[in-house]
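Suppose you are handed a protein chain with no further information: no name, no annotation, nothing but its sequence. What can you learn? This example shows the usual starting point.
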Amino acid sequence: MQTLIYVITILLYIVVILVPLMVGVAYLTLAERKIIGYMQVRIGPNRVNLPLPLLNKLRGFGQPIADAFKLMFKEIVLPTHSNRFLFIIAPTISFAPAIAAWAVIPFAEGWVLSDINVGLLYILAMTSMSVYGILIAGWASNSKYALLGTLRSAAQVVSYEIAMGFALVGVLMAAGSLNLSDIVAAQNGSFLHWFWLPLLPLFAIYFISGVAETNRAPFDVAEGESEIVAGFHVEYSGMLFAIFFLAEYANMILIAALASLMFLGGWLSPFQGIPVLEPMFAWVPGIFWLLGKMSIFLFLYLWSRATFPRYRYDQIMRLGWKVFIPITLVWIVVIGVAILVKLPPWFDIVAKG
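A reasonable first move is to predict its three-dimensional structure. Written in structure tokens, the prediction is:
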């Protein structure tokens, strides 16, 4: 009986995490279209509304629901001579790791589904799994254009995962732990104690690498300009295409959450340590600070898409291998020296421990 109650409790926790995440993914697409529309002096979606008194004045608020219904009822076309089993399972392989990674994400102090001691290692394992979905999708489609898009996208993802991994090594060294809750706790004190300051190059490299790993502009080279096709998922339609779409936006939210936890203090208040402002904002739950920080990174995602031109593929590879990886290696040595000399206020406690 106790085992059954435990299983039901875990399932409820999973639902509590997944439902807001899926809603967030849906309305992130609306936010993207609206924000980029305003940046480019356009209106964006403004026709589909929800029949609710409080929301009917928000023009276009029902657009994500309309898009979901459209994709659910579209025909799924299976290419001739494709490997049907792998073709169907590939989107799930891309989507599942983006969801599974949230099992170790702490939303506030004690608000985590699984507070494991190797949470950072688990995140690395989950985020590296998505490339297999891309590889399988391109190969199983039996299409030369899809295969070319797969090779470009997979090479890009693998290249920038190395830079992201080295950036996370710097976080591990600074916090002295692989546990995400402990990493946030190590930044306790004030916003000057957060790791964005001592790990500033790693912070910038991590976020830019996250943009590249999620195949977002200006690194969206999976869509070949000379091929006039959509890259590795060119043969996909209906809900199979929608799952790839969901995986991309779910990974965006995941990268924003990880950047907030590892470099911006997670759920910690930005007014911590400030005499007047700290007690004034002490009533705000930690999860709201985390969501606010995540929103900043998601806005940067959208802003970069509306602003920067697309990189050439050789420029993307050069940036990852010849710029980001050497900088992360050098800064890891700098962090090691800072820990050795017990540089306050970030590394004196870690070094003593």
